[in-house]
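Why do we care about 3D structure at all? Because function follows from shape, and shape follows, mostly, from sequence. That is the central idea of this module. The next example makes it concrete: a single protein chain, its amino acid sequence, and then its structure expressed as tokens.
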Amino acid sequence: MQRDILSAYLSRYVDPKTETLSIQLARDGWLGMEQSLLDGWRSRVKSICENCD
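And the structure:
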């Protein structure tokens, strides 16, 4: 998966006061988001490839 997508996902679980990542919350949330993130990434790759000609 693209690094930017993963970084954006993980940023949702950073406490702005302490600037720390809650790994447990990110892991728990990943179970419900993995397919959506992969679908978004695949869609973007497909649209880029279609415009290569």
